[in-house]
């Protein structure tokens, strides 16, 4: 990652969302929360899609926070009505998850910001504003974390920020959704192709990261010490000074070597500390257990 500018300017902090989850009573099952992001689900990546489906069916988390770019592209909730569409298949998986008792929360990313209330109704997922404060329990010592997809804080990527500001306008979205579904799919494919061409010949050191000053301002204004975000595809933990930090989620790619399939998990019975879970290893262990159980 290229070092971000130290400019003190920051995007205005939007109205903060709040997600407050109760801590379990003594003797009850522990609270388990997962954060995942940047799965970029699409039909052309069947192994990643299968890994995500396996994860949702087997995670012990009662609450799953999907922090943006769940899908490679989302051109409108009406795609859910297209027979045989990938969007409809994905909605069926998510609906089965919420009907099984898990709570799904979804935050928009830069690839799927057109997800709307139709998606929420079809899946049972709850849409989270960006940014959003996660609180556990209540009281003066309530643990708090700031959640964001992260793209709004990449303030040094001026062309993207201009597009982001334009594409979040209701008028722009209304104009886009007024086009036929096939035309929207074609346009999205063209934009993705141009994006991939720009990336060719670049290494990860040339990508724009979150601006440290802007990130610190968001944390200070929200009253949180740690930001949890995705977007950059560079998982890690970064100290920002003055007791502030950010935790970066991994992207998902089942075809990478080694596969990148991670969740960030918090358990109330493990000191309320976030831990990275390698889901590729978990999936292999589950498969081996099934193989041993089936052996004569």
UniProtKB/TrEMBL annotation:
Question: What reaction does this enzyme carry out catalytically?
Answer: UDP-2-N,3-O-bis[(3R)-3-hydroxytetradecanoyl]-alpha-D-glucosamine + H2O = 2-N,3-O-bis[(3R)-3-hydroxytetradecanoyl]-alpha-D-glucosaminyl 1-phosphate + UMP + 2 H(+)
Which GO biological process annotations does it have? lipid A biosynthetic process
Which residues participate in Mn(2+) 2 binding?
69, 110, 149, 231
The protein's Enzyme Commission number: 3.6.1.54
- Please state the pathway this protein functions in, per its UniProt record: Glycolipid biosynthesis; lipid IV(A) biosynthesis; lipid IV(A) from (3R)-3-hydroxytetradecanoyl-[acyl-carrier-protein] and UDP-N-acetyl-alpha-D-glucosamine: step 4/6
Per UniProt, substrate binds at 110-111, 157, 195, 199, 202, 231
GO MF: manganese ion binding; UDP-2,3-diacylglucosamine hydrolase activity
Thylakoid among the record's keywords?
no
Q: Where is this protein found?
A: Cell inner membrane
- GO CC, alphabetical: cytoplasm; extrinsic component of plasma membrane
Q: What is its main location?
A: membrane
Q: What is this protein called?
A: UDP-2,3-diacylglucosamine hydrolase
Do you know which Gene3D superfamilies this protein is assigned to? 3.60.21.10
Q: Which NCBIfam families match?
A: lipid_A_lpxH, PRK05340.1
